[in-house]
Amino acid sequence: MHPIILASASPRRQDLLTMLGLEFKVIASSFEERAKLDPAAPPAEQVVTTARGKAEEVFRLTASVPETADSLVIGADTIVVLDGEVLGKPADQAEARRMLKTLSGRWHQVFTGLALLHREKTLTAYEMTRVHFRPLTDREIDAYLRTGEPMDKAGAYGIQGLGAIFVDRIEGCFYNVMGLPVPRLALLLKEYGINLPEVKTLVGTGD
């Protein structure tokens, strides 16, 4: 099995890879090209472009090093989209409050792009999930902001944390909203000869 490198510092993505039984190394990418992307480009194109940019940056750093030359690099990027507006990570509490008030009582979309790079081939894909928030009160929003949870998350909420209390409906992959669409990733990994049930069994038995 190819050594795996996750080009992300996201604790959620790391937790999900660990849940799948994968051993991996984290080399966070500093790539951030969203400001250079065409804002009129479809959200799916934006996340795939950014995910690939993250993976390519880390791939260039590792491909010439013997210990990591055969590594499979995984890049991912997640955005929240409401009425065509991309909601990334909030810059401050005021922006986080605005995002949450806008999401209140409405459907939005979560897109995650995936890019898997190896010296033999590159694969990209994306996943989209629809999420609905129940109506939120100003008191609930302010209390949530005080937890600090919204500040490092696209759309200013984390469905795997306290943000889950705001979500009353979801259509599509739950893990995609966390930032890593696990079923889609599993299909891509199979293209590199990595079968997740077999990996999990080997890890679990200690073989």
TrEMBL record:
It is an enzyme of class 3 (hydrolase). Its cofactor is a divalent metal cation. SUPFAM superfamilies: ITPase-like. Transmembrane segments: none annotated. Keywords: Cytoplasm, Hydrolase, Nucleotide metabolism. GO terms for molecular function: nucleoside triphosphate diphosphatase activity. It is found in: Cytoplasm. Nucleoside triphosphate pyrophosphatase that hydrolyzes dTTP and UTP. May have a dual role in cell division arrest and in preventing the incorporation of modified nucleotides into cellular nucleic acids. This is dTTP/UTP pyrophosphatase. It comes from Capillibacterium thermochitinicola.
